Amino acid sequence: MNQETSISANPPEMRQITDPSTIRALTHPVRLALLEVLVTENTLTATEAAELIGESPTTCSFHFRQLEKYGFIEVAAIGPGRQRRWKLAHAVLSFGDAGDDAEANIAASTLSRLVTDRAMARMQRFHETKRNYPKEWQEVSDTSEAILFVTSEELRAFNEEVLEILMKYHPRLTNPEERPEGSLPVEVLVFRYPLRAAEAN
Questions:
Q1: Contacts 24+ apart (CB under 8 A), 123-131
Q2: How many Cα atoms sit within 13 Å of 68 on the Cβ side?
Q3: Across all residues in the chain, what is the average pLDDT?
Q4: Which of 29, 48, 82, 95 is the most buried (most CB within 10 A)?
Q5: Are 14 and 99 spatial neighbours (Cβ–Cβ below 8 Å)?
């Protein structure tokens, strides 16, 4: 399984993470929360991030430095008092739990569950507050489910087609001037998995 998380950078690039310690560095809810808000806000100071995620500026500053240590974020600017403004360093993070390194697989599986759980919680919060949105947003915010009989090669091609569609809108993350009037940040979750194990040959 590959877990890909879209994040902003300029120019876009994908970072493949295979080192177990680097993967484990992300398995912290505050660090994931900081990455998530940087997606929509582009750049933030520790104080600004603290207001968005409900943590103290000191906590955010510490975890920003840890994220920088592992190359996930970088300094966008330094303001008064040497206050750092942070930005994401990569367009897409990719990590998988089906490689040859057992330690990396365990770390990636743990991170994947954490990322998925956080996304599902955000989806649940949306459904709980859906009626607070304008009707046009209620109508287009949808969930689809389908069963496909496909080969692994066909599923790989499907994955690539979906990613191509998603990347079409990716420049808007880093270029606010490209965002149409009335646009909102929308999270798209796409899960693909077999319902039963393949039969042995």
A1: 123/187, 123/189
A2: 14
A3: 88
A4: 95
A5: no
The kind and range of the H/E element at 10 are: none
Q: What is the pLDDT of residues 146-177, one digit of tens each?
A: 999 999 999 999 999 998 998 899 888 778 88
- Asked if residues 150 and 198 have their Cβ atoms less than 8 Å apart, the reply is no
The bridge status of strand 14-16 relative to strand 84-88 is unpaired
Read off the pTM. 0.82
Residue among 66, 68, 67, 45 nearest 57 (CA): 45
Total residue length of the chain: 201
Ramachandran assignment for 54, one of left (phi > 0), alpha (psi -120 to 50 degrees), beta (any other): left
3-state secondary structure string across 98-129: CCCCHHHHHHHHHHHHHHHHHHHHHHHHHHHH
Q: Which two tokens stand for residue 105?
A: 């697989």
